[in-house]
User: What shape does this take?
Amino acid sequence: MKKKLAWKDICILQGIVMIFSLTSVTAKFASGQAAFTRGFFLFYGLEVVILGVYALLWQQAIKRIDISVAYANKAMVLLWGLLWSVIIFHDSVTPKKIAGVLFVIAGVCVLNR
Assistant: This one.
């Protein structure tokens, strides 16, 4: 078993999860483009680049952090996705969405302790 997770490690892990969540943003932008156009390939290409960066960072993170804790933190992609949907796409936030994300955050906090 590895040592207790430091705040620095949690922040790094959340940064990696945030990067992973950006793939959904680029996918949504790509879905708004006509198939096989320049914009289509641009956004899907950007998604592949983001996934590559994420994969490299993820491999480095799981060297230092227990895999069970790291995977539990991936659930925070729901928070980042909700944040991006509001900031970038101006989607509405319902009480059910907030409650769901709060339950996920609570679960991740329990596992991080």
Observations:
- Residues 7-112 form one domain.
- The two ends are 13 Å apart (CA to CA).
- The CA atoms of residues 24 and 102 lie 20 Å apart.
- The chain has one domain: 7-112.
